[in-house]
Amino acid sequence: MSEKKVVPLWKLLAPVVVAVIVLLIGAPTGLGAGAWLYVSIFAGLVVGLILEPMPPAFVGLIAITVSILFRVGPAVKIDALTGNAFPVTSAAAISWGLSGFSNTIVWLIFAAFMIGIGYQNSGLGRRIALFLVQKLGTSSLGLGYAIALTDLILAPFIPSNAARSGGTIYPVVSSICPMFDSYPDKNPRKIGSYLTWVSLATTCVSSSIFLTGQAPNPLAVELAAKSGVVTMSWTSWFLALLPVSIILFIITPLLAYILCKPEVKGSSEIAKWARTEFRTLGTMSFGEIAMACISVLALVLWIGSSYFGINPTTTALIVIILMVLTKIITWQDFLANKPAWNVLTWFATLVPMASGLKNVGFLNWLAHMAGGTLVSLDSTIAMLGLLIAFCVLRYFFASATAYVTAMVGLFVALVLEIPGVNATEVMTILLLPMGIMGVLTPYGTGHSPVWFASGFIKGPEFWKLGFIFGFIYLAIFIIVGIPWIRFILPYIG
């Protein structure tokens, strides 16, 4: 019988205390009492998402329910004749509060989590990993590229980097390390440290390469649109980051090899083990073949969504139906996929909560307050400053989703205050490196705690490597990515 986790009382009280303190400070000039009440609720939500005294989806549900109860959050309608605001009705409040459950992006993320179950059930993910390891695993560096390739292949279809890195790659890596007598407390530098870091870093890279590489990516795009700036589709996201993606994918295993140099330079044992494991899988099952064909279909429809006239979320729903019909997953698997339903509830509450900041006028007020500073800066300097700030703030969030929820609307408001800039271009520049910046901390993204908890890389070393890789990644993005985005965006936007 598992022990219940005891949550410290201060974690339970902190969101409420913060919300009350913000409320008691009082609304600043330019904001009404209702808007400030909403800001205080949102502040409590962010603290709750950071501390997680209870499941994040439940925190979001509480916040949206409180907002509905007090009828704050929906856009206020103005009487055209008198200029007075109509009071928000209970019907309007509940309609706004539940609007996230009809959001296409939320359902895309939900469906993609279901697709991850398909890879797990069919065994296709493990087959891909073992196939690449047996081909490239004769050297430690080659093994690093095998890990990178595995994650790259899975990333478009599995938006949970914790699921694909922790669920598919971690079991393979954890089987390799003991073969060389490499353990967290014994010979970690033999090969364990290297495999740990290359697994972490390559997943951060793949999380940025594709819009569906991590769940916060499409959420950020949706929140930016809700705040007034439409950014990217699946294809435009991929093309906008393409040169940076290629560079980071190539250099990451090599950088990890240099900075976490394994004592084992090469061994036929790795490839031999993978070959043996691969053989035990036998020939591809019907489920694996079907899953591979369905994945290709999904990728074609996502890339050509504008050409085929099929919404990406529709494609994801088609994939679910095909997986059930081909018995890759059962309807019971669909109903029992708790992470997917959890994410649906979580994001369906976050989308209206984030949009509420714009509805009540807070983002416009904040942009006006900060506008004077940004107006005085050169547009390029202002954009670079916002990019660096957007990335550095990642240090303060233990959840990429909490980070996106708290920051995207705020930065949209700031971008709109910079004179003479293309807001879509600047927000594209800010959002694209979100995945790669997950490398900064041992808690910054879903898969980070998995590899940190493995114990092969201790705390101080983990933070140092995170800073070095984060600095290199951001430098490459600024030098290569920004000029490319400015060039290509008119053609793909």
UniProtKB/TrEMBL annotation:
The lineage of its organism: Bacteria, Bacillati, Bacillota, Negativicutes, Veillonellales. PANTHER family: DICARBOXYLATE TRANSPORTER 2.1, CHLOROPLASTIC. It holds the Pfam family Na_sulph_symp. Its main location: membrane. GO terms for cellular component: membrane. It comes from the Bacteria. One of its GO terms (molecular function) is transmembrane transporter activity. Belongs to the SLC13A/DASS transporter (TC 2.A.47) family. DIT1 subfamily. InterPro entries: CitT-rel, SLC13A/DASS. The chain crosses the membrane at residues 12-29, 35-51, 58-76, 96-119, 194-214, 234-260, 281-303, 309-329, 341-361, 381-414, 426-445, 465-489. It is found in: Membrane. Keywords: Membrane, Transmembrane, Transmembrane helix. It is a multi-pass membrane protein. It comes from Veillonella montpellierensis DNF00314. This is Citrate:succinate antiporter.
